[in-house]
Write a structure and sequence with these properties.
563 residues
Length: 563
């Protein structure tokens, strides 16, 4: 089949998502089943993938969807537990004590706290933590989801203690006999025993990724505030968000400076962890002392609740606990979040014994339907387990009664069911799309066919397009790690073909894959589900598309200038 026609066909599943979800504004529960069937029909009748392989890929997608729903349930449960105990009311007061200005609150919670949680856990957990916290403070659910998605860019490449680099790039690129092996050896990345020093090679790529992110991410806090005031403010004004530019840049530098230092001196495991934590401490300390803060007469808030667009409101918006929850002290109210952050670090930082023990408890499903497709899960290491553990600790810590805790469980279960329909089609579609290389037609998998066609058109301008390929991978796969696995070797080869340093092209891939999380369908579904915002996925993606385009295009231009 003609290469151009094949590339257009491989684009159809993505085009279906764009048309139905974003263009026609269908809810994901209607759009994603159609996209899934498009991918299945292409796999079966064009790529001629065996039916057993398609079924196995779909089954793997259902398993991953179940893991995502487990994470969503845990996040909602913790939110409902804190609401029922009265702790959320105290947390609201603690932020009002710092400032009632919503622009400052979103920078602290989404950008800084969200970056730290991303570094600790990844897998969309920042949205599951920061988004409900913002809603608990009185943000419209859609404003909270948009902010939560926008910050899933700069910290993502080093999320879950560096997994997108240490696992994604490693598995996708650094294999015996690949061009990268000869390149690394010629560049001097060799151990004393004469083997290729993959760790040092990955650290070098990670430093380049961090440098690109630092240049692009410096504007993210300001873009978050500008988009919030433009789309959710009384006056629909970008200017109101831009007014806090001194504080926004200060918060950006407070996170990015330790982020860069960690990437250079410590390696890919620590940039987002260190940057988020150091930035959070520095910025909260400065904010409490009024440093670069808006004057009291310039504080910004949302319009009155009755004037909000109904599209902004989630099912959990304004939900109040039954009865009269007791007043919880500030320290006790924040303790669950401290425990959550601590446990996420302990369960994910590979150097710690507890992480190895937790991740070692695996459940493997091999050879689904007799194919090479399988899945390995570590249930105890999933963020959902941590959420549930912290919720149970909170029950005792806050001395809750049985009926209120039972209400938290019931309402959490009801909410998560609403997200299930979209996810049980979204993730299987992704798995069929990326497992389409084993067909009798002999074609490469769909994403590689599509990327190869774009590379042929781009030629020497490829560095500008490289981040968009990474973003496309994350858009369909919902993961920077998976995007890097799919495209790192391909990107490396294109770099060599056009005669530039291929490690910069791989770095652009990783940066674009991180930015793609802003528009990833199942991340948006998951973030919305946590606050009961179901069926509005297209509206969210339409708002986060511009920040993604900014991030991918700027990183591509910088990369082109470098190489």
């Amino acid at each position: 089949m003609n290469t151009s026609v094949l590339a257009l066909l491989s684009l159809l599943p993505i085009a279906a998502v764009a048309l139905f979800l974003v263009g026609l504004r269908w809810p994901a529960k209607r759009a994603m089943p159609l996209s899934y069937f498009v991918a299945v029909l292409l796999a079966l009748f064009v790529w001629q993938v065996p039916a057993a392989t398609v079924a196995a890929a779909s089954a793997k997608g259902l398993i991953i969807a179940a893991e995502l729903l487990y994470i969503i349930f845990g996040a909602i449960l913790l939110l409902n537990t804190l609401e029922e105990s009265g702790a959320l009311a105290t947390i609201r007061r603690s932020f009002r004590d710092i400032t009632p200005d919503r622009r400052i609150q979103v920078i602290i919670i989404a950008w800084l706290f969200g970056s730290f949680i991303e570094g600790a856990s990844g897998f969309g957990t920042p949205a599951a933590v920061a988004v409900p916290l913002l809603v608990g403070l009185g943000f419209p659910a859609m404003a909270a989801v948009v902010a939560g998605m926008m910050i899933q860019s700069t910290p993502v490449s080093f999320g879950a203690a560096g997994t997108p680099i240490l696992k994604g790039v490693n598995d996708g690129l650094l294999v015996a006999g690949s061009p990268a092996e000869a390149f690394a050896r010629n560049a001097g990345y060799v151990t004393a025993s004469g083997d290729v020093d993959w760790a040092a090679f990955l650290a070098m790529i990670g430093w380049k990724v961090a440098l690109l992110h630092a240049m692009c991410g410096a504007l993210i806090p300001l873009l978050v505030t500008a988009f919030m005031t433009r789309f959710f403010g009384r006056n629909r004004s970008f200017r109101e968000g831009l007014e806090v530019w001194p504080f926004a840049f200060f918060a950006a530098v407070a996170m990015i400076a330790p982020y860069l230092a960690s990437a250079y001196f410590l390696g890919p495991q620590f940039p987002s962890l260190t940057g988020g934590l150091v930035g959070l401490v520095v910025v909260v300390f400065a904010a409490k002392r009024g440093f670069l803060m808006p004057r009291p007469d310039k504080h910004w808030d949302f319009d009155a609740r009755e004037n909000w667009n109904p599209e902004w409101v989630g099912l959990l918006q304004d939900r109040k606990p039954d009865g009269n929850p007791k007043v919880i002290s500030m320290g006790l109210s924040w303790t669950p979040y401290v425990l959550l952050a601590l446990m996420l670090v302990l369960f994910n930082l590979r150097a710690l014994p507890i992480a190895a023990a937790v991740k070692g408890q695996t459940v493997a499903v091999d050879s689904l339907f007799g194919t090479a497709i399988g899945h390995v899960s570590s249930p105890l290491a999933l963020p959902g387990t941590v959420f549930i553990i912290v919720s149970a600790i909170t029950f005792f810590l806050h001395r809750m009664n049985g009926p209120s805790y039972a209400r938290a469980w019931r309402s959490s279960g009801t909410t998560v069911v609403a997200a299930s329909v979209a996810l049980v089609f979204t993730v299987p579609m992704v798995q069929v799309f990326i497992n389409s290389e084993s067909g009798a037609a002999g074609y490469e998998k769909m994403p590689i066919v599509l990327a190869d066609a774009i590379a042929g058109l781009a030629g020497e301008a490829w560095p500008i397009f490289a981040p968009f390929i990474g973003g496309m991978g994350a858009f369909v796969a919902g993961s920077n790690t998976v995007s890097n696995m799919m495209f790192s070797l391909f990107q490396f080869g294109v770099g060599q073909r056009i005669g530039v340093d291929p490690t910069w092209i791989v770095a652009l891939q990783a940066v674009g894959g991180a930015a793609g999380n802003m528009i990833c369908v199942h991340n948006v579904v998951a973030a919305g589900a946590v606050v009961g915002l179901v069926g509005k996925e297209g509206a969210v993606i339409r708002k986060t598309l511009a920040p993604f385009l900014y991030y991918a295009l700027l990183s591509g231009i910088i990369g082109y200038a470098i190489v």
